[in-house]
Amino acid sequence: MSKKFLYLFKEGHDAFGGDQTTMKNILGGKGAGLAEMTHAGMPVPQGFTITTEACTQYYADNREINEEIKADIFKYMGILEEQTGKTFGSVDNPLLVSVRSGARQSMPGMMDTILNLGLNDQAVEGLAKKTDNPRFAYDCYRRFIQMYSDVVMELGKSFFEERIDAMKERKGVKQDVELTADDLKELVKEFKQIYREKQGSEFPQDPKEQLIGAVKAVFRSWDNPRANVYRKMNEIPYEWGTAVNVQQMAFGNSGMRSGTGVAFTRNPATGEKKLMGEYLINAQGEDVVAGIRTPSPISKLHEEMPEVYDQFVEIATRLENYYKDMQDMEFTIEDGKLFMLQTRNGKRTAQAALQIACDLVDEGVISEQTAVLRVEPKQLDTLLHPQFDAAALKAAEAIGKGLAASPGSACGRVVFSAEDAEEKVKDEAWKKVVLVRLETSPEDIVGMQVSQGILTVRGGMTSHAAVVARGMGTCCVSGCGNDNDVVIDYDAKTITINGHLFHEGDWMSIDGSTGNIYEGQIATVASTENANFKRFMGWADAARQMKVLTNADNPRDAQNAVDMGAEGIGLCRTEHMFFAEDRIKAVREMICARTVEERKTALAKVEPYQEADFTAMYRIMGDRPMTIRYLDPPLHEFLPTKPEEIEALAKDMGMTTEELNNVVVSLHEFNPMMGHRGCRLCVTYPEIAEMQTNAVIKAALKVSAETGKMITPHIMIPLVGEVKELKYVKDVVVKTADKLIAEAGVDMKYQIGTMIEIPRAALTAGQIAKEADFFSFGTNDLTQMTFGFSRDDAAKFLTAYYDTKIYESDPFQHLDQVGVGKLIKMAAHDGRETNPNLGLGICGEHGGDPSSVEFCHNVGLDYVSCSPYRVPIARLAAAQAAIKAPRAMKD
Ligand code: PEP
Ligand code: MG
Question: What is the reported pTM?
Fold first, then answer.
């Protein structure tokens, strides 16, 4: 039997046994809602849904609707004619339909709609006669020509709108509704004339041709640029496709007892339990959206048409009770009769989502676990960062757009270097700065910390600026040069973005949640302390099976993360501690040392700093575990670059500038990400591992003695690709640690683990696990090395990959579950086979990304570790994953 591509609204519920997920997958959200409302006996104009699978077929058939589906469409039109008693294309009693998109997940405003389809020069006369309302008939026809020309033929809207405006001016009226039947008749003539000029043919009179054209246009709109952007933002797979709903028209424009509107069962901004909505009398759907006339609040309908209002309230209540969630509904009133055109779970702000979830639990409608599934993890972000004032943002126009690298909003005066940021903020007038850089480097950390926000020209979602900003909870827009025309001039201290010139000191506003860049100041409001948040997160924590740790390398971030619910530190990157002004000199001496003795002397200067840092961190973390990762980046990152700095260091080290220059040159790497870094540093300079072990163990001993509770240090060796490499460094660590512990005369245990961030480590995980107490998947490097492209450069070409649909999302942001995920799965399995007690976690940026967290749960990891501000997101994502697919608990 051939596949069924069409379903009457009447058939939808029974065909899928009322299973909402399957219905949405096949019929799309709108189609599923229409089928359910029909099944419940609600007033729905009848029609049918062409499935999402037909859309996939359309693309498989090179953007054509095949003959079989076409035949089915006409067959279903025949059934609709019987249901309605009207005839498609008839002159006396024409059947008019709307053709609307409806994907599995709603994508508001992203795809296309055509109304009043089926009209032509004869049918419009028939409609005028039948309704005895020529004004209405010609209003429908002019709307149809306008929409068809825009959506199906892609001629744009402006020509038509200009003609309407000109007509209103000629007639001395302000509103469309004041135009008479004759005026509209005249407009129809003009519109057809425009169509002829632009298209080179007559406006199609055959309703069948119109219908196929419209269905194709809706399928095509799945691939339009705004839909593609929306899909990428919301992780909606391209392969899903959209369904198309063909539905008998209900006319909201047939007079003063008609209208159209939108309503929510609860307030989508605050969550308040109160019907909220708007409607317009004598109008069709697009008039509400276009904002030409101001709609009335739904409460007014109570006065204007009390019976309709009561019926609507009754339906709204039934729908919310049925779906057990806030509904977003569209309706039309035709000559005093109510029709429902859509119901779906409404989009809402984070604040509203929490309020509604808590209220529904209190009302006994849903369980706590169901409530946990009702809030999108990503949304929690907006509760935790300052936001632009909504009204101010609406009034502002973005001048460019980069990557939404770290959420929140920032408004400040532009500075072009981290040093300038540090210096300027001391002045009251410069208290708020936005740091604008080509890219940032670890040295910029302090300047970044004092900035309201960071804008970089280069770099992706895991570029330095992005990672560090997220860690600090600072707003960041990265890589704005990827898709915009950007010129930055450090000497002149200017940046030009798409023709807009900023000098140092000019005000700029950036939105790290959208990537938008604005000129001038936009007011921000502090993030909301949400009373429901704690309660809701309590339910999430009860449900989840993975621990949520954080990536933090300073006491401030660690405290922040603990406040956000982190249960420990999964990654403390020690190199971030090296850049402070008072220690970089000793670090540089260590790197440029000519002999082991010189290196040891320099390391001895660094050690107390490290020990002090670890001590401070242990004090904050209390009983919570902390994994300290040994030095990882290539050494050249620490070296001075300015001639005066090189000269000063040479003097300090008793070298000539030339000698030091030679060292610097010798440390240059062609591909530093694959060069002398990670555990390779400790293989070449075991003294570094010794120094770091000394610092860790001494700090742990000190804090254990203070608190009376023995700490178990977790030491992590980065970038291992071969078990012997790990063993070599581990031996140094063990020897150093054991000596200190013995000297202290205490029973301190410690763990030594490794990062799995090189494909070879994943491939040989079974062997590596023999020497490791735990694995932490470093998916930043693992993604980089599996794909073979650099994490700092990929943003340059990934846009082309999205455009060509080779990749749908940034693999540094959302874990590539097919490739990199396969390595993780394999390494976790092989590692546990050799070492059943092996701890497993992830500490790459993916640890804070909801779909990646779900993957980690499903492959059996014990924890995820992410930047502090993402901790609540990871907690919720882990809870949702556990509710959807609970894992067998370990003993
Ligand atoms: C990683 O590679 O995923 C990781 C966490 O380490 P880093 O980002 O410091 O290289
Ligand atoms: Mg790494």
Answer: 0.85
